[in-house]
Amino acid sequence: MLLKILAARTLPVDEAALVRILACTDNVALEQWAEAALTATAMDEVFKE
């Protein structure tokens, strides 16, 4: 779902971000990233803690 949100928002996902997302098995982190992606204007905002 996170990748779909990022694509819909036209946020560019570089290879490092893609690897990080695909390797993540923590559902809480994935949900937090997805929520951040809804309003982020850049990828660094998605992974901001």
Protein topology:
Layout: H1 2-8, H2 15-23, H3 27-37, H4 43-46
Provide a descriptive summary of the structure in words.
With 49 residues, this protein is mostly helical. It has one domain (2-46). The protein contains four helices and no strands. The protein has helices at 2-8, 15-23, 27-37, 43-46. Helix 1 (2-8) runs parallel beside helix 3 (27-37). The chain is globular. 10% of the residues are buried. The model has no long low-confidence stretch (mean pLDDT 96).
**Radius of gyration from CA coordinates:** 10 Å
Number of helices: 4
Overall mean pLDDT stands at 96
**Oligomerization:** single chain
Class of secondary structure makeup: mainly alpha
Q: Work out the strand percent.
A: under 5%
Distance between the termini: 20 Å
Taken together, the total number of domains comes to 1
Give a short account of the largest sheet.
none
- Cα shape: globular
Query: Which runs of at least 5 residues are low in confidence (pLDDT < 50)?
Result: none
Number of strands: 0
Question: What's the SSE pattern?
Answer: HHHH
* Percent in helix: 55-70%
How would you sum up this structure in a few lines?
With 49 residues, the protein is an all-alpha fold. It is built from four helices and no strands. Helix 1 (2-8) packs parallel to helix 3.
